[in-house]
Design brief:
InterPro entries: ArsR-like_HTH, AsnC-type_HTH_dom, Dimeric_a/b-barrel, Tscrpt_reg_AsnC-like, Tscrpt_reg_AsnC/Lrp_C, Tscrpt_reg_HTH_AsnC-type_CS, WH-like_DNA-bd_sf, WH_DNA-bd_sf. This is Lrp/AsnC family transcriptional regulator. One of its GO terms (biological process) is response to amino acid. One of its GO terms (molecular function) is sequence-specific DNA binding. There is one protein chain. By secondary structure, the protein is α+β, with helices and mostly antiparallel strands. It folds into 2 domains: about 40 residues, Winged helix-like DNA-binding domain superfamily/Winged helix DNA-binding domain (Arc Repressor Mutant, subunit A, Orthogonal Bundle); about 80 residues, Alpha-Beta Plaits. About 40% of the residues lie in helices and about 20% in strands. It is built from 5 helices and 4 strands, in the order αααβαββαβ. It has a 4-stranded antiparallel beta sheet with strand order 2-3-1-4. α1 packs across α2 and α2 crosses α3. The longest helix has 14 residues.
Length: about 150
């Protein structure tokens, strides 16, 4: 179910996505409103779940996590018990930044951020020791061309 957001809400969301550390006064000035209505709208969007957790975006390269792998997984297992174990395993691995279940020939795709190929192999060995997987293909990203967390609101 879509939440109801109007043009002012969208402007506020755009500002928050650009820099959530802005003050209410800064946001209000940029969206053409005053502080109290902006605060009330932000509070309402938090309550309805439009706005989730406020976090910080880190630079993986500066933290020594220079290798990004996209991991394609095919499985012959589709039972609930296997899926639960697989999801539990992925959630326990901090190097898995994203995981998606797909339609088509590939069942899952993971985005895995690690220091290097050896660290990826450690991840891979741990993964296959915990859950049975039919086929794994790892693709190393050579260059991140575009990265954003901002949704087109």
């Amino acid at each position: 179910m879509n939440a109801r957001v109007d043009d002012l809400d969208r402007k506020i969301l755009t500002e928050l996505q650009a820099d959530a550390s802005q003050t209410l006064d800064e946001i209000a000035s940029k969206v053409g409103s005053s502080k109290t209505p902006v605060w009330n709208r932000i509070r309402k969007m938090r309550e309805t779940g439009v706005i989730g957790a406020t976090t910080v975006i880190l630079d993986p390269d500066k933290l020594g996590l220079e290798a990004c792998f996209f991991v394609l997984i095919r499985t012959s297992e589709h039972e609930a018990e296997w899926q639960n174990k697989f999801l539990e395993t992925l959630r326990a691995r901090p190097e898995v930044l994203e995981a998606h279940r797909l339609a088509g020939e590939i069942d899952y795709i993971l985005k895995v951020q690690v220091a290097n190929a050896r660290a990826y192999d450690d991840f891979y060995q741990a993964l296959i020791s915990e859950v049975r997987i039919f086929n794994v293909t790892a693709l190393l990203s050579m260059e991140r061309i575009k990265h954003t967390t901002a949704l087109p609101v």
